[in-house]
Specification:
Shape: globular
Low-confidence stretches: 327-333
Strand order of the largest sheet: 3-2-1-4-5-6-10
Distance between the termini: 40 Å
Order of helices and strands: EHEEHEHHEHEEHEEHEEHEHHH
Helix content: 40-55%
Structural class: alpha/beta
Strand content: 15-25%
Mean pLDDT: 92
Largest sheet: 7 strands, parallel
Number of helices: 11
């Protein structure tokens, strides 16, 4: 199988490519990545000479390039995206270009050049908005709260419309918060680890009561593989592990693992439109595709902390400005 993975030098993308290549399946992967701030060539450096892997620098918004690449593949897994909510509040246009128009370009390229290819749109739980009780199911209404989630929701709607209108083989996945190695330092877990390791204050929005459901990135990759090979065309699959914690609980767990004092925590002004709680019902993918997370949260979090502590050379150049000179949310921190 020949697979085009977009955004493969980012956090989830690089973990997915590594996961697929290490599976030992008969696959070849083309990695299309525009090398933006969230991309890091070090993420897949060990595969540079792997004959089953090819890197192409480019943007999914470049229609001619995308059209050439989709012609000769069996599947496209779209992981390329602008993902940080704070950045979307400061500069929403970039999120529209990448997350919505970029997906539209991919869909058009598939429609015109390779209608048989399977397209996996990797979306997010944030498209549903927040929920105070219970969990969202795949057919629940979408109510995004910020420019990031709105751009992803729009892309999801284009994908489902192209499946119904043009008969394209398209599946949408929506996953909860990922964590693990190679995550960009501005995200909550790596930011907390890095700042605590430097004995710097760890900023927490509001009172820290916002609740997220966390999943180890390799469990997400395993779910994407099952959807790719066994998912039903035109369907949506929620992906979640059932690890719901308040943000303040996550920060305190990390400080405990690192043996750091809780007085490093610093509460800061809350983000505009900050969703209170995300929660997904993933019974559909568990029942239909026999997927289930394999990693316990506690052990995976400890392994993640150790990975960042043991890989300072990976994050130091990325994190220096963000970590040592943090700026308000409106300037993307």
């Amino acid at each position: 199988m020949r697979i085009l993975v977009t955004g493969g030098l980012g956090f989830i993308g690089s973990n997915f490519i590594r996961f697929m290549l290490d599976e030992g399946r008969d696959i070849k992967i083309i990695n299309l990545d525009k090398m933006s701030y969230g991309s890091n060539p070090k993420n897949l450096k060990e595969y540079e000479n792997e004959p089953r892997y090819k890197f192409v620098r480019g943007d999914i918004a470049e229609y001619d390039l995308v059209g050439k690449l989709v012609k000769d593949v069996d599947a496209i897994v779209n992981i390329a995206a602008e993902t940080h909510v704070d950045r979307s509040i400061a500069n929403p246009e970039e999120f529209l270009k990448s997350n919505t128009i970029g997906v539209f370009n991919l869909l058009e390229a598939i429609r015109r050049a390779n209608r048989q290819a399977r397209f996996i749109q990797v979306s997010t739980d944030e498209v549903y908005g927040d929920i105070l009780e219970g969990s969202f199911r795949e057919n629940d209404r979408l109510m995004p709260s910020n420019p990031y989630s709105a751009s992803k929701a729009a892309a999801d709607m284009f994908c489902l419309a192209y499946h119904r209108t043009y008969g394209l083989d398209i599946i949408v996945t929506r996953c909860t918060n990922n964590f693990g190695p190679y995550q960009f330092p501005e995200k909550l877990i790596p930011k907390t680890i890095i700042r605590a390791s430097l004995n710097l204050k760890v900023p927490v929005y509001g009172s820290g009561g916002n609740i997220r459901d966390w999943i180890y990135v390799l469990d997400h990759c395993d779910a994407l593989m099952k959807v790719l090979f066994h998912g039903k065309s035109g369907e949506i699959y929620n992906i979640s592990a059932g690890n719901e914690f308040q943000n303040i609980q996550i920060v305190k767990k990390i400080l405990e693992i690192m043996d750091k004092p809780e007085d490093l925590i610093e509460f800061v002004d809350d983000r505009p439109g900050h969703d209170l709680r995300y929660s997904l019902d993933s019974s559909k993918i568990r029942n239909e595709l026999r997927w289930a997370p394999k990693h316990s949260f506690e052990k995976a979090l400890e392994e993640t902390v150790n990975w960042y502590l043991n890989n300072e050379e990976w994050w130091k150049s990325l994190a220096t400005e963000k970590i040592l000179h943090p700026t308000p949310w409106k300037l993307s921190w």
